[in-house]
Amino acid sequence: MSKVTMAYFLNSLVNNDSRYLMCFQLFLERSSEHQCMKDFIHQQLPHILDSVGDGKSDLNVIGVGSGAGEIDLEMLSVLHQKHPGLMVDMEVVDPSSLQLHSYRDLVSKKPDLDYVKFTWNEMTSSEFEERWQLKRSTKKADFIHMIQMLYYVKDPGATISFFQSLLNKNGKLLIILVSGESGWGKLWQSYKDQLCCTDISQCVTTGDIKNLLSTKGVNFHSYELPSQMDISECFIEGDEKGELLLDFLTEVQDFSKTASPELKDGVLDLLRHPDCSVQSNGKVIFNNTLEAIVIEQLN
Ligand SMILES: C[S@@+](CC[C@H](N)C(=O)[O-])C[C@H]1O[C@@H](n2cnc3c(N)ncnc32)[C@H](O)[C@@H]1O
């Protein structure tokens, strides 16, 4: 009797913009992701932005992978408080038309942004880089941020180098990603090869970025942003929201339905393991700790 082996094809979540957005929105609702960023923005960022824009009449800012803009606008308000008289030229770079639409919608509802001129670039960071080089632009930036986006580029090191090369004197490049010590870091240590199946969905943590910068001799500061995510629904078989959260955690479309039983069991076991989560009041709380890395252009 011949043995039939089932093949399991995992499709990356990033190939499905609308499902990705549904998953990301639910992730934001179930986690303290944006709250921990806002705490960082109000407690640490004002000091980080202290020397940005010294002696200038306007500021150039680039947001890479800005999404729906909620965090960008929070940072712009801090920048404005620091430098109330300065106009801001803001380049927004994101390939998702859905996200850019939400961002523009948010901007249209805020009456107090008349100090900002937005330029919308519906494209990936590498397309932005190509255009920049074609234009032979000599424009420099005072503040560049990449919040939770370096997972989606082919070569995170090259992307950082390019944007670092655009910094003005005293300019700052802010990167936020999950920490190597987070549940994400532990999940990827065990399942990177089986989950991150495309070169546009990398399992990169701040641990990797810090190693890379140290190897290149680039100075940086880092800040831990403690954060949690309630993943209890992932353990209710057939739960629709649990499935969306699992897709987001694994970056695989329909993970529950398309992963092999062994992979699914292994991932679920690890997600509730103390390496990744704590159990509290009957809930499974995943360690979503982030880390901010700040690179400064000194000259
Ligand atoms: C996890 S979301 C983060 C959004 C926002 N920065 C935040 O923290 O709320 C990742 C964003 O990166 C964008 N993105 C994906 N691939 C990208 C690329 N190659 N270059 C620039 N942005 C990209 C996505 O469209 C999405 O808006």
UniProtKB/TrEMBL annotation:
Tell me which positions the record assigns to the signal sequence: none
Binding locations of substrate: E33, N288
Q: Mind telling me which InterPro entries this protein's record contains?
A: HHMT-like, SAM-dependent_MTases_sf
Keywords in UniProt for this one?
Answer: Methyltransferase, S-adenosyl-L-methionine, Transferase
One MF term in the entry's GO annotations: N-methyltransferase activity
Transmembrane regions listed in the UniProt entry? none
Name a biological process GO annotation: methylation
Q: How does it assemble?
A: Monomer.
What's this protein's name?
Histamine N-methyltransferase-like
Source organism of the structure:
Gouania willdenowi (Blunt-snouted clingfish)
Taxonomic lineage of the native organism: Eukaryota, Metazoa, Chordata, Craniata, Vertebrata
Tell me the gene name: LOC114455653
